[in-house]
Amino acid sequence: MGAPTTPGLGVVETVVLDVPDVAAAGTFWLPLLGARVVQESDDDGQFLVLGTREGWLVGLQHAPDLVPARWPGQEHPQQLHLDLRVPDLAAATASAVALGATLLRENATWNTLADPAGHPFDLCASDEVDRTTVWGVTVDVPDAAAAARFWAGVLGEEIAYEGEGMAMLDGPRTVMFQQVEGYTPPAWPDPARPQQLHLDLDIGERDPDATEAAALALGATRLPGGGRTFRVFADPAGHPFCLCWG
C-alpha cells in the first residue's frame, strides 16, 4: 500500500513486558505461548526472554513498582498489547484463565484477557493455526496513520493497511496501530506514568550514532537511560523503544 520512507533502522527483536515478578510472569507466559527460555539474566532474575516456535521473542523485565494497566480506560492505559491466534477460542480462553489470566471482554471471534501483571492481550480465533501463536503486537496511538508512517520508516516496512482508525505494517513481525480516543501517553521514566511494554529493535551492524540520528530525523525523541549496547527513545506517540546492537 505504501513504501517505507527509509531503508529501515532495525528489526523488531523482542516485545518486552514490564512485570513486578519475573518468575511468576514466566510461569504464566511460558505455557500460554508454548515457548522456551532463550535468555536469563545473571542479576537475580531481573530479566527473562522467551522464544516462541514461530520465532517471536517475548521479554519479561522486572519492574517492582509497576502501575498495572486498567483496560479499557486511559487513566492507566494498556499502551501496547500482544495479539495471539488460536484454533479454538473457548478452549484457549479457558486454558489462559486456568493459568492465571483474567477475562476482560468476550467477542464473537476474539476475547480480551489480562495476564497476572495486568497486561491485556487478545486471543483471536483463526483456522490458519493448530496451536496458540503470536500474530503481532498492537500499539495504541492518537493517530494510526501517523504512527504507521513513523514505524514504516524505522522498520523499513510497507504499510499494508490503513483505514477506520487502524493501520498495519507488512513484514515478518506484524505491527498494528489502533487509534484511541482520549489517548494518554506514557512518560517514561516517570513512575506515575510508566511504560507497560516496549519494543527492542536490533540494528545489526549499523552505526549506533548514525542510526540514532536517523531515528531522531523520523520524529523519535532520545530518552534517558541506555547502556553499552542499547539506547532508549520514544516514538511520536510517547512509547519508549530501544535500539540495540552487539
TrEMBL record:
Pfam families for this protein: Glyoxalase_6
Q: Which PROSITE patterns match?
A: VOC
Q: Which Gene3D superfamilies match?
A: 2,3-Dihydroxybiphenyl 1,2-Dioxygenase, domain 1
- Domain VOC: from-to ranges: 133-246
* PANTHER family xrefs: CONSERVED PROTEIN (PTHR35908:SF1), HYPOTHETICAL FUSION PROTEIN (PTHR35908)
**What is this protein's name?**
VOC family protein
